[in-house]
Amino acid sequence: MSSFNLEALTVLVRRNVFKRMSSTEDLVLFHGGCHCGKIRFQVSTTPVVDVYNCNCSICRKKQNLHFVVPDDSFKLLQGEDNLTCYTFNQHKAKHLFCKTCGVQSFYKPRSNPNGYGVMPHCIDEDGPVLETNVKYFDGKNWEKSIVNSDILAKSEKR
């Protein structure tokens, strides 16, 4: 029998969030953006996502925690003209960030060119609750790690 958590219930009521307690395969529409608000997006995903904590050179420097969704689950709502892109090494990953505030809300990962890496901390706080499970990815040894990781499947169409 699970215990009742009054504090968690209070937070949900205050935020006026009514999360469906059914299958995690049900998709929920989340909205998010950068700090200054010039970049806005929406993403459809399950209410519980696997967030990857990678130790490659750029992810380590940026503290790039992200979850991956297929291309068709992500939509840029505004700010395309305010995005700038940084690439390095093989130039496969497209690190997109706001020209004004510098926040990276999402990017095109090397591991998932058919998807987007979305930063859970850029999801709006006044919307549905996004729960996260953090997984470690050894990006320093990318070629070896990608073979054993489930990250490739994350950008497959649902």
Commentary on this structure:
The chain is α+β, with helices and mostly antiparallel strands. The chain has one domain: Metal Binding Protein, Guanine Nucleotide Exchange Factor, Chain A, CATH 2.170.150.70. 14% of the residues lie in helices and 32% in strands. It is built from three helices and ten strands, in the order αβββαβββββββα. Strands 8-9-4-3-10 form a five-stranded mixed sheet. Strand 1 and strand 2 (40-45) form a beta hairpin. The longest helix has 9 residues, at 6-14. One of its GO terms (molecular function) is metal ion binding. Pfam families: GFA. Belongs to the Gfa family. It comes from Paramuricea clavata (Red gorgonian). This is Centromere V-like.
Q: In what range is the share of β-strand residues?
A: 25-35%
Shape descriptor: globular
Indicate the multimeric state: single chain
Low-confidence stretches: 1-24
In N-to-C order, the SSE pattern is: HEEEHEEEEEEEH
- Note the gap between the termini: 33 Å
CATH class: Mainly Beta
> Quick one: biggest sheet?
5 strands, mixed
- What is the averaged pLDDT score? 83
User: What is the count of helical runs?
Assistant: 3
Q: Gist?
A:
The protein is 14% helix and 32% strand. It is α+β, with helices and mostly antiparallel strands and 158 residues long.
Write the layout of secondary structure elements.
Elements: H1 6-14, E1 28-33, E2 40-45, E3 48-54, H2 57-62, E4 65-70, E5 74-78, E6 83-86, E7 95-98, E8 106-107, E9 115-118, E10 131-137, H3 142-148
Parallel strand pairs: 3-10
Antiparallel strand pairs: 1-2, 2-5, 3-4, 4-9, 6-7, 8-9
